[in-house]
Specification:
Elements (H helix, E strand, L loop, with lengths): L15 H17 L14 E6 L5 H12 L3 E6 L11 H9 L5 E6 L4 H8 L3 E7 L5 H15 L6 E5 L6 H12 L3 E5 L15 E3 L2 H4 L5 E4 L15 H8 L3 H4 L7 E3 L12 H4 L6 H20 L4
């Protein structure tokens, strides 16, 4: 199955069939990652440029690995070593790079909508690797892949996203994707970190972690963005951990075992206790591995759609 769009800019509006096609394609690429020789030729002769205007470790390395595993030629761009530091605009940067005959662009940027803007000014395929507080579609996809791998299906799965929902692009992509796939999604956090009228996206809202734990199968714990603490959105990290930190003691009160996810990086013993992050409940490292397979699937489906 081919995707309807030439780009992956977000999961909002992406159909159930398209999400399933990406997840199914990733299964094959996940098997390749366990082989002694992990390289396959689908994107041989294609050039992919990674435009990362924000700091990243997991996402950037995951995309670079996925691109090289598919035999693409890879160019990685950093702001500090580019003309952006001299005042060059995103549009000029992209068009100059495209003039070098590239085929695909992976972009991470602090401004919401930057990936959409880029898709309108270049002819290359564009993949959104995170645009401000808007979306992070491949993170949502790898989270769904990890859950489907463990539970067999997303239909009816009870997932709660815990933490700073307001500023989280991961939360938005998970909400759009999981609800489309039939999961029951809820969010939990302080009132100051939950957007108004988020219920319109088809989610339930909780403000007490103890109330939500007996009702879910999965807790997807978001990083507390420490820079937000300066804005006074909650009294202190210690108080946040007391009421919303996910710990072994709290999870032990669940009637059935709860799966713990986290997009990383983890603030240990703030939003998630260290012992729980490393426990049998956690699929965090599996998320990282699956991220390469998901990005291979997205690159393959977009990169071969015009061949």
């Amino acid at each position: 199955m081919k995707l309807r769009s030439r780009h992956l800019l977000g999961l909002e509006g992406v159909s159930k069939e398209e999400i399933a096609a990406i997840l199914d394609t990733a299964v094959s690429f996940r098997e390749i990652l366990d082989r002694p020789i992990k390289k396959v030729p689908p994107l041989q002769g294609k050039t992919v440029v990674n435009l990362f205007f924000e700091s990243s470790t997991r996402t950037r390395i995951s995309f670079e690995l996925a691109e090289r595993r598919l035999s693409a030629d890879v160019v990685s761009f950093t702001t500090a070593a580019s003309s952006v530091s001299k005042g060059e605009t995103l549009k000029d940067t992209a068009r100059n790079i495209e003039a070098m005959k590239i085929d695909m662009v992976v972009i991470r940027h602090s401004s919401p909508g930057s990936a959409h803007f880029l898709s309108r000014v270049v002819d290359a395929n564009v993949i959104n690797a995170g645009d401000g507080g808007h979306e992070h579609p491949t993170q949502g996809l790898l989270d769904m892949y990890t859950l489907r791998e463990k539970f067999g299906s997303l239909e009816g799965l009870r997932v709660c996203i815990v933490g700073d929902i307001t500023h989280s692009r991961v939360a938005r992509s998970n909400i759009y994707g999981l609800t489309t796939m039939g999961a029951e999604v809820s969010v939990c956090g302080p009132e100051t970190l939950i957007p108004r009228e988020i219920e319109k996206l088809g989610v339930k809202v909780f403000h007490r972690l103890e109330e939500v734990i007996p009702k879910v199968d999965v807790l997807n714990v978001l990083r507390i963005q420490l820079e937000r603490q300066k804005s006074g959105l909650f009294p202190s990290l210690r108080e946040y951990h007391r009421f919303f930190g996910v710990t072994k003691e709290k999870v032990a009160r669940a009637s059935t075992p709860i799966t713990i996810m986290h997009p990383g990086p983890i603030n240990r013993d703030v939003e998630l206790s260290a012992d729980l992050a490393d426990s049998e409940h956690s699929v965090i490292l599996r998320q990282v591995t699956n991220g390469v397979a998901i990005r291979m699937a997205v690159l393959y489906l977009l990169g071969t759609s015009t061949q």
